[in-house]
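Reviewer 2 asked us to include a model.

Predict the structure of this chain.
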Amino acid sequence: MAADIATVKHKPGSYEWWYFDAGDDKGAYHVVVIFHQGCPFSPRYMRSYGKRPDHPTALADHHPAVSISVYHHGLTLYYSMTQYSPFDAEFNGSRVRLRVGNHQLDGLVEDGLLSYSLRLDEKLPDGTHLNAILRFTSPVPNPLLWTTGRAETVAGHSWNLPQATSKVKGVISINHDGRKEKPIVFEGTGYHDHNLGDAPLRTAFKQWYWGRVHFNEGTFVYYMKETIDGWIRNGWWLSVDNQQVLGTCDAIQSDATIRNPFGLQADTRFRFFLPDRTVNLTMRRTVDSGPFYFRFLSDAEVVDATGELIERATGLSEYLHPDRIHWRRFWPLVHMRLRYADKRPHWVQRFRALYRLTW
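Predicted model (structure tokens):
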């Protein structure tokens, strides 16, 4: 829990984010929520960093944001990414407590359980209103799960994994123009990680693949990044109680490249070889596709050493090309999706049919 507390970020271009995702037990809904201090995808932030790195606006605490995605059978039911004024956000430095706009995140350890409560409240310019309460609960992770306090580090960036597996319960309501819709009663399995960097992402990564799949026997997490020194490829098989690393990858193979209309391309099929099993992963459906980022629903299967199928499951996977965040020719497209709460919304965001084309 201590590694999840918001840090003081004195360096320009720094960032920190708290990532949560969950899939419901019926396989119908997936939700992704990210709290940012120093949103690394914000053109406003990158412009401030590029023009005046010695100015306070080039610091992370001037660029808080929250992004929310809800998917139903692989289709985007709701999307928002909103950057707020620094005066409309609080990041507690003594415990896990965040407030960004009307969104709140609270972390708590009690009776051997680690829990995170998310309260979400977002109204879009097109009249869509999301309210949600979600609670992620798991056993307190083994402090010796990793050899260091953070699971993986590269120069300028660190990642820790408080909840590879958690139980998630809550309610999500998505209403349009004041009309009350039937709320989504959510119960499923979740994941939470935490990332921190002291400079823009492109200083640490050239490319970045990440993903997780929850199986009955455990959760498989992979984390692969290309740095200036070459590729670092990792995969872990973790126990469902977050107490043990049951296996690590000996080798990884990938192929089947996809390319989107923005020229972004990524591999979409992977084989992760562990000592006693292999995890085969295929990016089945693209749920987010932009100039620098992909998010996929992925089909996964785990087979034993003889090739016999053990289990199939669905996971979430991502790909990021950080340098493209700084390509100014893409910024007008980003402005259509990213809302600045302290400014008049982009005209596209006021029209539901047009705004949804950006999802």
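Residues 142 and 217 are 18 Å apart (CA to CA). The longest strand covers residues 157-176. We have added this to the supplementary material.
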